[in-house]
Specification:
This protein is 21% helix and 16% strand. The strands form three sheets. The chain has a seven-stranded mixed sheet.
Length: 401
């Protein structure tokens, strides 16, 4: 069944006793949960066309997997044959980002460095843009629980150098990481986020003057770049009671010479073609291909085949640019084998004639001259179990030839 946003009910008047309880609960609340939008921020998001009947909504209903599906999900995740294949057999190999060895700008004016999962550092037309930085060991509000990183960081936050813009797609833990935001907040970067997400950043110490919050189809200029929040098909929330209270978005970053697109998390929907018509074509797209489940959450994460289709939609009837698959390889977040997303992406891209970059975590490349494909994951992926030969049951007669 499609999952509906939670209804919004007015808060009861707070008396002295209620205020003391709220204050105590606030002190016990883990900092990693962030903070809810309030004041002018809350008033602004409530005026958004995407905020209807007390919650942010997608253009159509989405299936997230309700409480009734939890037993089935647990059984799927507990299957021994599938459980082993959801992680690599050994640590994935890393690459050294190009900017650690040279201060020279990219020859073409555009270079991308995949830092793992959905984190990408884009050097575009003289600016440095960091998408969805997650440098913590776990994507969780707790240091002792939650999905754990499958490979080390290819670069420490202190090694990133000056960042001009940090772009956040939504507030889920594998895209918005408190330790990473606190580390980056000490610099001079502007933070571009969807509506409401700025409340988390302010709670973690980022000055309000350096936060730009955008609704879908709104743009902001930072330096020589135009950043535009575009639709996605997903949801939000960092706790059990705050779903649908902040917005999610995909992002277009356009410089004087180059254009790139980051999907964030999203299901496949007609919005890709509309974004491509309005802002494409793109030199490169960064597209989510992992953590999908056609059985349990088919509308909020794309399959690899849908990711390739989205890339083609974004080309706006022009030649497709380069596809960088993201949202795979770093955390175990879906029921599929660890290497399945990239293998299916390559197969679909070959059929569609789409060029794909497959860097190791930390690998840098220029879309104008992408490196030869390196199937590095095959050396550490667990093989599928061999099919068992069928045998006649006891007492069965052999077939006559």
């Amino acid at each position: 069944m499609p999952e509906s946003p939670e209804s919004s009910t007015p808060a009861s008047p707070a008396g002295p006793g209620r205020s003391r309880v709220a204050g105590t609960l606030g002190r016990l609340r883990p900092a990693g949960l962030g903070a809810p939008p309030s004041g002018e921020r809350l008033a602004r998001l409530r005026s958004s066309p995407q905020f209807r009947d007390g919650a942010f909504r997608n253009d159509g209903p989405v299936r997230l997997g309700g409480i009734g599906q939890i037993p089935g999900m647990l059984r799927e995740l507990a299957r021994r044959d599938l459980r082993r294949r959801r992680s690599p057999a050994s640590q994935p190999p890393l690459a050294r980002p190009a900017w650690l060895d040279s201060d020279a700008p990219p020859a073409s004016g555009l270079r991308l460095t995949w830092l793992g999962h959905a984190s990408v550092l884009a050097e575009i037309d003289g600016h440095r843009v960091l998408f969805d930085p997650v440098f913590g060991e776990r994507c969780s509000p707790f240091s002792f629980a939650g999905p754990r990183r499958l490979h080390p960081l290819p670069a420490e936050p202190a090694e990133l150098g000056e960042i001009d813009v940090v772009v956040i797609s939504h507030d889920h833990y594998d895209h918005l990481d408190m330790p990473s935001i606190r580390a980056l907040g000490a610099g001079r970067a502007v933070f571009a986020v969807p509506l409401g997400v700025g409340a988390h950043l302010e709670h973690w110490g980022v000055p309000a003057a350096r936060i730009v919050e955008l609704d879908w189809h709104e743009s902001a200029t930072v330096g020589g770049l135009i950043l535009t929040a575009e639709p996605g098909q997903h949801f939000c929330g960092r706790g059990l009671l705050d779903r649908w209270r902040t917005l999610w978005a995909s992002w277009v970053v356009a410089g004087p010479e180059h254009r790139i697109y980051h999907s964030g998390d999203t299901g496949y929907f007609p919005g890709f073609a509309k974004t491509g018509a309005a802002h494409g074509p793109f030199d490169a797209t960064m597209i989510q291909i992992g953590a999908y489940s056609e059985r349990f959450w088919p509308d909020i994460h794309m399959t690899p085949e849908q990711g390739v289709r989205a890339h083609l939609d974004l080309a706006a009837d022009g030649p497709p640019g380069l596809l960088l698959p993201i949202h795979w390889g770093t955390f175990n977040l879906g029921p599929h084998p660890w290497d399945e997303p990239i293998e299916l992406t390559l197969a679909a891209a070959e059929r569609a004639g789409v060029p794909v970059a497959t860097p190791r975590p930390g690998g840098s490349f220029e879309p104008a001259a992408p490196p030869t494909s390196d199937p590095w994951w095959r050396a550490v992926a667990r093989p599928a179990p061999a099919a068992r030969a069928s045998r006649p049951s006891a007492g069965a007669r052999p077939a006559e030839g």
